[in-house]
Amino acid sequence: MLLGPIVWILTVVICYIFIGHYWWFPPPISQHGQAYDAQFTVTLWVTGIIFFLAQAALGWVIIRYRDKGGVAKYSHGNNALEALWTSATALLFIGLVLAGTRIWAAVHFAEAPADALRIEVLGKQFAWSFRYAGPDGKFGRLDIKQINDANGNPFGIDASDPSGKDDLTSASLKVPAGRPILLILRSRDVIHNFFVRELRLKQDIVPGMEIPFHFQADTPGTYEVPCSELCGLGHHQMRTTMEVMAEADFEKWKREQAAQK
Amino acid sequence: MSSHIVHAGHQAPTGFIRRYIFSLDHKVIGIQYYFLALFSVFLGMGLSLLMRYHMVYPDAKVGWFETLWPTGAAGGIMTPELYLSLLTMHGTIMVFFVLTTAPQSGFGNYFLPIQIGAEDMAFPVLNMLSFWATFLALVVMVAAFFVPGGAPLSGWTAYPPLSAVGPLAGPGEGLGQTLWVFSIAIFSGASLMGAINFIATTIDLRCKGMSMMRLPLTCWSWFVTAILGLLGFAVLLAAGVLLLLDRMAGTSFFLPAGLVVNDQILSHKGGSPLLWQHLFWFFGHPEVYIAILPGMGVASQLLSTFARKPIFGYRAMVYAILGIGFLGFFVWGHHMFMSGMNPYSAMAFSVLTMSIGVPSAIKTFNWIGTLWGGRIRFDTAMLFALGFVSLFVTGGISGIFLGQPALDLYFHDTYFVVGHFHMIMGVAAIFGMFAGTFYWFPKMFGRMMNETLGKIHFYLTFIGVYAIFTPMHFLGIAGNPRRYADFTNFEFMGKLMPVHTFMTWAAILTATAQIIFVVNLVWSMMRGKKAPVNPWEATTLEWTIPSPPPFDNFAGKHPVVNHGPYEYSVPGAPKDYIMQSDPA
């Protein structure tokens, strides 16, 4: 009997915290992020209403139908009601997933635009590296025997390939704002995961696979990148940042990096 | 429906060892499983408290950490590798040795034969073997703590390459991980033996009149769970053997070419890390239903009994159990939306995942329909069943977010997932076990549990688990990744520390409240009020025999069933319930 009001109070408190946004997403920095947030909001309302009604009904029957000495109703159920709530939930749940399909398709079915800036991403225990093609626009060949973290060659860029001489490597990700980016994700040891909260995007990085992953960030700023797939004892330290820069600043950064080589 | 006379010719054993240790009696084996799970749940809970403490106070020096783990916690400060080994062992012990063991092997072993009017399980020797194999698996698993390098750090999902390349990938990945795989393989074998036994028993040993559509819903859930176990553990066993071969025989089932681990070039080639994920989750997702279906059965049984009303929509409930069991094998891919598998397959997996929400919703509606118009008695067993319904709703609803690949683009591997599965597979299932304990304890031990202690324990635990696991959803929305030993390296996680601190203290308090349960259990076993034959005025067959039942459940008689399992408040009947075995 006491349980009824407790269920109600818990329900109200949980709904209150969800509505209050006390701990919430950071603002989105892309169109995909905005679409994501819209889909999340629709799902939150649909599930929130179901959650509230189901818990409220549970609390209600606990209070209303406590044993007061009467006689319980003898009933084995109601097929019309069964049919109603089966089809209603089926429509609602499948409808939600279909509504979100566009978002998934834009991320994974659509190819990156031809003019997308191509950046290679390497995950390893427990650091990130990013590689940009130099002025020749070509990435040099890789050779795992030439991998040398201490000498700044985590990718193992082959010294004998001239097109690799001008490749830039960086420990953090720099991207120009407003331009499509195509990441090529690779790992050389275990599974890692590339996650930027503000982009609302996440992708596992799997050894033995090259996973293309495209996006476009519009709001300049510096955003944290936490590894999001358990990769070993330093998993919680596997951090880098993604800096979204104005196009001119990005070109300037590339020139500076090239000059330092 | 031929009724084999299992006990024919074998008398109750008299020696202590044959009676209580290597017993063939399904009731003793059920209790053995129950206590194995009880030991495991306190071990697993203890590990989680250490983890929660470390997350919030990563620099705290705790002297006895060093006593327990001289290298993992040198100077009393827990290392990240020790944290991850606790995480791995917490998940593994809870999933296998608690959630798979108590609801199915514990209560199922004890009550399935009695509820269907049988004298024992179909294969008593197999039953004994499956318990002792489970026991061996637990010993091997716990032994991983005590070997050089300690317990593995690859999580309960043991994704290769991390779990497959040996100590290069980190401490615990040597002998510790090998023992882990061995333990899982032994456990899979034990579960297969149990599953065969449950299926044969349900099909073959039902007494006269016990048609499938007169089975109590508990029996239906144990039966379908056994089928899931048979199909799921067979695949996990195979996956475990392949992982062992990759680790010990130099094969490359899960390891691709070009691996450079810890600056060493490995010679593996041709394997795929995703293969393990497919095999693991083909088991892993049905495993979620292995954990929760028996709880759903117990909840259905108790809601009807204590509301003094027939279950609302018995047939719909049966079809929902079957539907969940069937669909449960086609949704494993929703664990892999971010894994790099073909993104088109995500569409199929997500539609199927949403479909499985439908039978789950049917069950919830029918539970509320059962209570509607009832005359509810609030014994502790019933409180836990009602708590189960509330937690099932809360834990299930967050699945609607995670089942959408689009939303999983953010939530995958965040605390949102941790909150979701702890709510539903963890605490809802555990509430099912508590409900079963309070309901069946009088039958199992012949004494009643203390209701006052029971209610205090219930309310503290119910509020406690909401306080621990609801905030995880907010952490997930804020983007906090799971499996982080501490949160000091990221700026955005620093702002979430008050939430973590709240959860840690909620966990410590809720865990402390479990002492009340243990006291109640032990005290009631010794000093509880003597239990009558049918303390809850329930209808199923276990309530027709003495508490506790004799070795020969029905004392050589063959029960005959004339009624459905939930005939409460039948108009014109002399009492407000008709036992299944009452005359027609």
Notes on the protein architecture:
The complex is a heterodimer of chains A (261) and B (584). Chain A has 261 residues and is α+β, with helices and mostly antiparallel strands. Chain A folds into 2 domains: 3-66 and 80-108, no CATH class; 117-260, Immunoglobulin-like, CATH 2.60.40.420. Chain A has helices at residues 3-20, 31-64, 79-99, 101-108, 247-260; strands at residues 117-124, 127-132, 168-170, 173-176, 181-187, 192-196, 201-205, 211-215, 221-226, 239-245. In chain A, the strands form 3 sheets. A 5-stranded mixed beta sheet of chain A has the order 3-2-1-5-8. In chain A, strands 4-10-9 form a 3-stranded mixed beta sheet, with helices on one face. Chain A starts with a helix and ends with a helix. In chain A, 39% of the residues are buried. By secondary structure, chain B is mainly alpha-helical. Chain B has one domain (20-544): Up-down Bundle (Cytochrome C Oxidase, Chain A). Chain B has 18 helices and 2 strands. Chain B has helices at 16-21, 26-56, 63-68, 80-99, 101-115, 124-143, 175-204, 217-248, 273-307, 314-327, 343-371, 380-397, 399-402, 405-411, 415-445, 451-477, 491-494, 497-527, and strands at 260-261, 264-265. A two-stranded antiparallel ribbon of chain B has the order 1-2. Chain B is globular and about 80 Å long. The model of chain B is unreliable at 1-6 (pLDDT under 50). Chains A and B meet through helix 1, helix 2, helix 3, helix 4 and strand 7 of A and helix 4, strand 1, helix 9, helix 11 and helix 12 of B.
